[in-house]
Amino acid sequence: MCPDAGDYGLIEHGAIVTNGAEIAWAGPAADLPSAYKNAKTTSLEGRLVTPALIDCHTHIVHGGNRALEFEMRLNGASYEEVARAGGGIVSTVTATRETSEDDLLKAALTRADALIAEGVSTIEVKSGYGLDIETELKMLRVARTIAKQRPVHISTSFLGAHAAPKGADPDAYIDTVCIPALKAAHAEGLVDMVDGFCEGIAFDVPQITRVFDVARALGLPVKLHAEQLSNIGGTQLAARYCAQSADHIEYANEADAAALAASDTVAVLLPGAFYTLHETQKPPVAALRKHGVPMALATDWNPGSSPLGSLLLTMNMGCTLFGLTPAEALAGTTRHAAKALGLADSGTLEAGNRADFAVWNVQTPAELSYGIGINPLHKRVFAGQTT
After folding, report:
1. Under a CB-based contact definition with an 8 Å cutoff, are residues 231 and 208 in contact?
2. In what order do the strands lie in the sheet with 266-269?
3. Separation of CA 81 from chain center
4. What residues contact 58, with CB distance under 8 A and at least 6 apart?
5. Residue 80 scores a pLDDT above 70
6. Which pLDDT tens digit goes with each residue over 272-325?
7. Which residues of 171-209 are buried (b: 16+ CB within 10 A; e: fewer)?
8. Strand 295-297 to strand 14-19: parallel, antiparallel, or no bridges (unpaired)?
9. pLDDT tens digits along 252-268
10. Nearest by Cα to 112 from 139, 65, 150, 75
């Protein structure tokens, strides 16, 4: 999956040498350096090996679910009726505030297990369902704990700028809750990146700018939910701050794609939300290709707009809904997903990278995107150890 190796960089009769948690060498078995000739070997019996998958956009720490809201909508309830019944993000915020740290962790571990079972080695986890200082910190502590209890890497994103609490003034919320929560989370070592939701129903460009300025002062990289429902300038904002990624971007245009290319920002495509919300505006894949913007894919696993717990299904949806090729889908869940998280040592099988890879019961890489509801994982290797 190295960028200069063609669609997949597939090596027939390949070999991988691990040195603890790191890849020491990878290439054709016939070219194995003499220093490794007597190393202990494990035959994978001709199976396909890829870098372990990376889910670079999730919200897997939260309380409750929105299944009843889903049922209400299907029975004809309007958005307003659902909201009056306590639905929407308000219900998840309430549930997350009321759920103990232990119970949040238990639920998050179950979700992480589902991703791990599909060959995922790295999961990005966001806060954003607390909308108060205490709960935002609680969510991030839970996210950090996942990596202590499961063989998985966790990258955390502070998403205090997700929505303003019901009845709160958005500007006042940014200044009195979001930014103080960010500073507190950073002081505890809980934050790897800072995210925001730049949208008409959330926060505008000046409000997100204030958050990003604080992130920059703290030395934290940024990413952004941008142009999901409309185009209000979020993608251009992400580009100006050289964000790790701009996510969703269904309403982005060619100028936005050019800006992402110039800032070396990854476009993270989220077909689960597109599907769940019955959207029709697709992200500008042709423009992203034209300008050479790396495209990642992620589940966006959350209780409202994307209750999607399968990165393999996400790959299929990226192909069938957005027109990606299977090679783009695999790059989008390996090297481009790694880039979206700022991970220089992940996403490809090459010397010096993490020894995280997946072994599949398939004949060709395209099968990983082709199957619907099929998990062909044979085994996963994490930090050089089979899991």
Report:
1. no
2. 53-55, 120-126, 153-161, 193-198, 223-226, 245-248, 266-269, 295-297
3. 31
4. 111, 115, 123, 124, 125, 126, 298, 299, 300, 301, 302
5. no
6. 999 998 999 999 999 999 999 999 999 999 999 999 999 999 999 999 999 999
7. eebbeebbbebbbbbbeeebbbbbbbbbbeebbbeebbb
8. unpaired
9. 999 999 999 999 999 99
10. 150
Instruction: Look at the chain and count its residues.
Output: 387
Predicted confidence at residue 79, as pLDDT, reads 63
pLDDT for 312:
98
- Please name the amino acid found at residue 324: L
Task: Burial-class residue 221 by CB neighbours within 10 Å (0-12, 13-18, 19+).
Answer: middle
Pull the structure tokens for residue 126. 């966001």
The residues, ordered by sequence, that sit 6+ positions from 110 with a Cβ below 8 Å of its Cβ are none
Q: Indicate the pairing of strand 385-386 with strand 245-248.
A: unpaired
Distances (CA, A) of 268 to 63, 217, 247, 288, 332: 25, 25, 5, 11, 8
Helix (H) or strand (E) holding 340: helix 335-340
Q: Using CA atoms, how far apart are residues 115 and 323, in angstroms rounded to an integer?
A: 24
User: What is the 3-class SS of 327-347, one letter each residue?
Assistant: HHHHHHCCHHHHHHCCCCCCC
In terms of Cβ atoms closer than 10 Å to its own Cβ (0-12, 13-18, 19+), residue 107 is middle
Phi, psi of 358 (to 5 degrees): -120, 140
Alpha helix ranges (H) inside 150-190: 170-173, 179-187
